[in-house]
Write a structure and sequence with these properties.
With 247 residues, the protein is of the alpha/beta class. It folds into two domains: 2-110, Rossmann fold; 117-243, N-(1-d-carboxylethyl)-l-norvaline Dehydrogenase, domain 2 (Orthogonal Bundle). The chain is 53% helix and 12% strand. It is built from eleven helices and six strands. The chain has helices at residues 2-6, 19-29, 47-59, 72-78, 89-102, 114-142, 147-154, 162-165, 189-206, 211-226, 237-243; strands at residues 11-14, 38-41, 63-66, 69-70, 81-87, 103-110. Strands 1, 2, 3, 4, 5 and 6 form a six-stranded mixed β-sheet that branches. The protein starts with a helix and ends with a helix.
Amino acid sequence: HAADAAAGANIVITMLPSGPILRTVAIQILPVMAPGAVFLDCSTVDVDSARAVADQAEAVRVLCLDAPVSGGIGGAAAGTLTFMVGGSDEAFAIAEPLFDVMGQKAVHCGPSGNGQAAKICNNMILGATMIATCEAFALADKLGLERQAMFDVVSTSSGYSWTMNAYCPAPGIGPTSPADNDYKPGFASELMLKDLRLSQQAAEGADADTPMGRMARDLYAQFVEGEGRAGVDFSAMLPWFARRGRM
């Protein structure tokens, strides 16, 4: 039971798949944690859930941090994750040595919920940028431009990006990436879809106009659910675009 594991702990770390599951676990463990202990949640969930759990923690005098990560499976294995952290200065100071062990960088983004806000904004950019990168490679193919030449130009020109330079979706081009391993996931397509949906849920709640984020969400929904491409890396959009004609 979660409560048995959490009882008496100075710090409890969770990484859970959704906001409702986080809320359920928090209800179980917060009442048995000692006042002044830290509940460190590294899930990627909706901002409202993160803030609701922080309120529950405050009611029982437990410190709470929302600290989603960026860097994927490779970053976790290499200890190079970035943590985006929301919560009090006091809680962040207590957890900072753990961030140093688990990752490469921890950015304190402000009060509770701001870690989640930073994560979904970052991944909205990531999803839209990967789509644009894959589209450009597919267009280059049809124009007769070799992928290596395309990479050599874009990676050193104004179109460069992390998705091009560090995580290239074209096999055999640039640094080693999931494209070189038959698109086995470093960051699965269904997780990108989850994060894009979270970004648009937040945008609707905040009355923010995010047309590119909306379109990225819809394209990943078509890819993951319409084409049955869950379980592959989110960069596997490239072969999908390469097969498609103009709609």
